[in-house]
Design goal:
Layout: E1 3-7, H1 11-22, E2 27-31, H2 34-43, E3 48-51, H3 60-69, E4 78-82, H4 88-96, E5 101-104, H5 109-122, H6 136-174, E6 178-183, E7 189-192, H7 194-200, H8 204-208, H9 212-215, H10 221-232, E8 239-246, E9 252-264, E10 267-276, H11 278-323, H12 329-355, E11 364-366, H13 368-382, E12 386-392, E13 400-402, H14 404-421, E14 425-437, E15 451-460, H15 467-472, H16 490-500, E16 504-510, E17 514-522, E18 545-549, H17 553-565, E19 569-573, H18 576-585, E20 592-596, H19 604-614, E21 619-624, H20 628-633, E22 642-645, H21 650-662
Parallel strand pairs: 1-2, 1-3, 3-4, 4-5, 12-14, 18-19, 18-20, 20-21, 21-22
Antiparallel strand pairs: 6-7, 6-10, 8-9, 9-10, 11-13, 14-15, 15-17, 16-17
């Protein structure tokens, strides 16, 4: 095999060529410039020379000219291997000097080996005798021209590189991520960007004196060493981990850290890019909290079904007892207490479902004073210590049109916020008032359209709020409470409820002076048809035939007794299949089907569809103790379907039955 002289001022380039040629059986020698190459060539025999052009002391062009004029060297093939001189004029100048080959970096290893083999096989110099191929004056002129062109190009390249580096520096400095470069041996930082300095609170010399282990309290030295080893040996191209960064003041913040190796020549360093994930962690915690709320809501919905069925049995049996003549006054009083307790329990169930947001809005005409009074006991249980809850109802308050459970939710959220703003003692006040808004007073009342409104005010003597808190108060997930003490959804829910009901909410607060929320709801205008029916007025009955499908037998029995007490003919079925068979076999007319929504084997909607095929004129009333969400999934909340929510009283059921039969 041949002996080849490699001439290049770059140690890495020499190393790569030596490794390649030696691995294929060639011997090599090396030199860092043209002058050193001549000394080596005079002391050792070579079969080929591969030379760079741009080198200190003596460049490749000068070396080639001397080489081809020397009687001892001119027969040895001379090949240029360059990445700087790449133009056609450069190649022609090299060939005029006597070069045997002009190769441009980089070349694939197999191409380099093929070129070397070709030059070694030919071993025929371009000129048979040594001597100048270019006159001195011509060489000098052409050499200066080539060198000047290359220097100009080098300067332009350097200017572009400096501009690019300056632009890159600005990008790195402006980055919101923390960017570091640290040494493989010492692990000390050799570069940190401005973002890292600002986030961590260090100045540049302080941070450069640290290592990644000094910034990451969670990171063990042994584990970090194993990570870097996997990057060094190529097992991993990049590592991503989540850890904590410790600031100069001792506080910490979570980061997503990206690590990857960077090679500068033979020097290995590591690039670390850290992204602050505090906000993401916060959002993940809020999502987990929302999932917990969802689970509680589902549990409440499941419990509500069975609880509502039991309450309904208690309520209707109590009503049936009160309708009888045989009760003594003492017994009557006890039954009325049972009835009152069951009704309070029914209200509590509705409130629980409202707070878990499992109950769809069912707005109706209400007296806001009455709804506040119904919630007072529950609200008093929410406050503690020496906090006093007062209620100042307005006389002659106009009715409003809203779901009472939504009012309960609004009151609970506002009272809880007021309670948390009171250090130990103080007052929470609830007031109602009629308000007339005209064009002149609109700015004083949340810029509402002119008209009549009912104002609900909830105020406290607590700590008050600053301007920043007021600005973000109704945003979802915004909270000033500590971790685990609030979801940030309470006031956002209040805002949504009020807007849904065409109202407005304003808040007035100053630090140390307490807070006042004012809610405006449109005053109810009765329709032309007259006042709504009195819920306490006795409902009329009838003689129609009604089929009742209910899988809870106690509930089935009390519905039967209640309807028979109103004069109706009642057929009962404890399963959907029994109900279908009864409808199929009954010889007389069927005027109404009352069916539970959720039953084993077949739901109420499917039962309706099957029976309607037999009796197209049959009217249907759905009942359920499940939440509105479950009912909505079965398509039973459209306006053309009749529905009554358990628990209900006999009068409520009788009135709804009469309404459906007469529709």
């Amino acid at each position: 095999m041949a002996t080849i002289l490699i001439v290049d001022d770059d140690a890495d380039n020499r190393y790569l060529l030596e490794t390649l040629l030696q691995s294929h059986g060639h011997a090599t020698g090396s030199a860092r410039n043209g002058a050193e190459a001549l000394q080596v060539a005079y002391s050792q025999n070579f079969d080929l020379i591969l030379a760079d052009i741009l080198m200190p002391v003596m460049d490749g062009f000068s070396l080639c000219r001397v080489w081809k004029q020397d009687p001892r060297l001119f027969r040895i093939p001379f090949a240029f291997y360059t990445a700087t001189y790449v133009e056609a004029k450069d190649e022609q100048f090299a060939l005029d000097l006597g070069a045997d080959r002009f190769l441009l970096k980089p070349l694939p290893p197999e191409t380099i080996l093929q070129e070397v083999q070709d030059l070694l096989v030919r071993r025929i110099p371009i000129r048979p005798e040594p001597g100048p191929s270019v006159e001195d004056s011509t060489f000098t002129a052409e050499y200066n021209r080539v060198l000047t062109r290359k220097l100009e190009k080098k300067l332009a390249d350097n200017e572009r590189l400096e501009a690019r580096n300056a632009q890159l520096g600005k990008i790195l400095a402006a980055s919101q991520n923390d960017i570091f470069v640290f040494d493989d041996i010492t692990l000390r930082f050799t570069f940190v960007n401005q973002g890292a300095l600002e986030h961590l609170g260090y100045d540049d010399p302080e941070l450069r004196s640290l290592t990644p282990l000094g910034l990451c309290p969670e990171l063990a030295a042994e584990a970090f060493g194993a990570m870097l080893k996997s990057l060094r040996d190529g097992t991993q191209e990049k590592l991503v981990l989540e850890t904590l960064f410790r600031k100069k003041d001792g506080s910490t913040y979570p980061v997503a850290l990206n690590l990857e190796p960077i090679l500068n020549g033979r020097e290995l360093s590591f690039l670390a890019v850290a992204q602050d994930i505090t906000h993401r962690r916060h959002m993940e915690a809020e999502f987990r909290q929302a999932q917990k709320m969802e689970a509680v809501g589902r549990l409440a919905g499941g419990v509500a079904h069975d609880f509502n069925n039991m309450l309904n049995v208690i309520l209707i049996n109590a009503e049936l007892c009160l309708m009888g003549k045989e009760l003594t006054e003492g017994h009557r009083q006890r039954v009325m207490e049972i009835q009152e307790a069951a009704e309070r329990s029914a209200v509590l169930t509705r409130q629980l479902l409202a707070f878990s947001r499992r109950q769809p809005a069912q707005p109706r005409r209400i007296d806001l004073n009455e709804v506040v009074r119904e919630n007072q006991k529950m609200l008093n249980r929410m406050i503690e210590g020496d906090i006093e809850l007062t209620f100042l109802p307005a006389a002659g308050l106009a009715p409003v049109f809203i779901d009472p459970s939504q009012v309960s939710q609004v009151l609970a959220n506002l009272v809880i916020n007021a309670r948390d703003a009171l250090p130990a003692a103080g007052t929470i006040s609830i007031e109602t008032a009629n308000v007339q808004v005209d064009e002149d007073s609109r700015p004083l009342h949340a810029d509402l359209p002119a008209g009549g409104y009912v104002r609900l005010t909830v105020s406290d003597t607590g700590s008050g709020m600053d301007d920043f808190t007021l600005e973000h108060l109704f945003e979802p997930f915004f909270t000033t409470k500590g971790e685990g003490k609030g979801t940030g959804l309470g006031l956002a829910t209040v805002y949504g409820i009020i807007k849904q009901n065409l109202g407005a909410i304003t808040v007035y607060s100053h630090l140390g002076l307490g807070t006042c929320f004012k809610i405006y709801l449109p005053a109810r205008q009765d329709p032309a048809g007259g006042a709504e029916p009195d819920p306490e007025a006795p409902a009329s009955g009838g003689t129609e035939t009604i089929l009742v499908a209910e899988d809870e037998k106690p509930m089935l029995n009390v519905i039967r007794m209640a309807l028979e007490g109103k004069g109706y003919q009642v057929l009962t079925a404890s399963s959907p299949l029994d109900a279908f068979l009864l409808a199929q076999r009954h010889q007389g007319p069927l005027h109404l089907l009352i069916t539970d929504v959720v039953m084993p084997g077949m739901n109420g909607k499917d039962l309706q569809d099957r029976i309607i095929q037999l009796r197209p004129d049959l009217k249907v009333l759905f009942i359920s103790g499940y939440t509105g969400e479950v009912i909505a999934r079965r398509g039973l909340l459209s306006e053309d379907l009749h529905f009554i929510q358990k628990p209900f009283r006999i009068q409520d059921l009788a009135r709804k039955v009469r309404e459906v039969l007469d529709s």
